[in-house]
Structures are given as structure tokens and as C-alpha cells.
Amino acid sequence: MESINSFENFKSNPELLEKLYSNSSVKNFKQGDVILNESSIIRSIPIVIEGSIKVLRTDDDGREILLYYIKEGESCIMSFLGGMHQDVSKVKAEVEEDAEVLFLPVDKLTLFIKEFPQWLDYIFKLYHKRFEELLEVINEVTFKKVDERLLSLLHKKVELTNSKTLIVSHEQLANELATARVVVSRLLKKLEEDEILKLGRNKIVIL
Hints:
The chain contains eight helices and eight strands; from the N terminus they run H-H-E-E-E-E-H-E-H-H-H-E-H-H-E-E. It is an alpha+beta fold. The chain is 44% helix and 27% strand. The chain starts with 7 loop residues before the first helix and ends with a strand. Strands 1, 2, 3, 4 and 5 form a five-stranded antiparallel beta sheet that branches. A three-stranded antiparallel beta sheet has the order 6-8-7. The model is unreliable at 1-6 (pLDDT under 50).
């Protein structure tokens, strides 16, 4: 699929990029900050300028599962849909890496769709990408064992951060996989014994 990162779709249209910034506010967040909670009213659409955000879903028992990451130049299609239909958020958005985020008010969405075909193309590409990622989550939860899902998650984090040294706790990984911390700790120890990774305090090095 064609990349949508770094506002590539907008660079050929300076008017769109200028209008996007002039109608939005920019905020900075630290790792772990929650920028959107489930059942919150969606007043603006986040677009990541720098850093990354993870989008999670929580069940009735408080267990979370990772749905997808929002990287530089990307947004949350759940927010788009909820904002356009004046619905509350169905997901939680938490900062994975320190992030700079642009917030476009939902009342500007229709205006942008009418004025800029590239904006609509951007939304469709996001929708396509998120749909594929959600299918992957369903496939992993349904057909893969927890150890396979754990390794897949670690590889995603390596790709996201462009580093083989991950600053992450066992509890955080367990939350994102919707499993118990003791299970993740046991599997990580096995992966370390197999020399696939090396464990440290809240740190994992992929070998």
C-alpha cells in the first residue's frame, strides 16, 4: 500500500497543508499520556506530527488489547468516524513515544472533504490501512498462540521505534496482548533462553 506517512499526500497541495495548520491546534505529549478515553466526546481529530500513539480497546473487566499504532503523518480513523457522526469514542489512545499532535476540530471535517479531494483520499487510505490492521489483530487472537503474538508485537515495536532496544515493561506487553503478566514474563524468559532477546529492567533487547 502507498505510504501516507509524513503528510506526503498534502505536500503537493500547500493550500491544504496551510489550512490544516491554521484550523488546528498543536500539542505535545509524553509517553504514557492518554489523549482520548473510551466513551469520551470526540471534539477534534488527532494527526501525529512526531512520535507515535497506540490505540487500545478495553473489555468489561478492564483488560486492554492493542488494535494499532498511529505513526507520523497518520490519524485515528475511529476518531474520524466518531467525530463525523457525533458519537463518543470507542477506543483509548495512549502515547507510545513522546509525541507532537495536531488536533483538527470535528466541525471542520466536512469543510475539508468538500474543498480538498486529497483530504478524502487521505481518509480512505487510512481506513484501508486500519481495516487491514484490525483483520491482522483478529487473525492473531483467533489463530496464533500467545508466544507468537508476543514476538509479533515486539517486532512491531522495533519497526515503530527503529531500535532493537525496547523500553517496555512486562505488564505493558501483557496489557497490549490482553493476557496475564506472569504469562508474558514466562514467555520472555523462554525467548531469552533461546537467545532471541535479552531482558533488562523495563528493557528488552532484540538480538
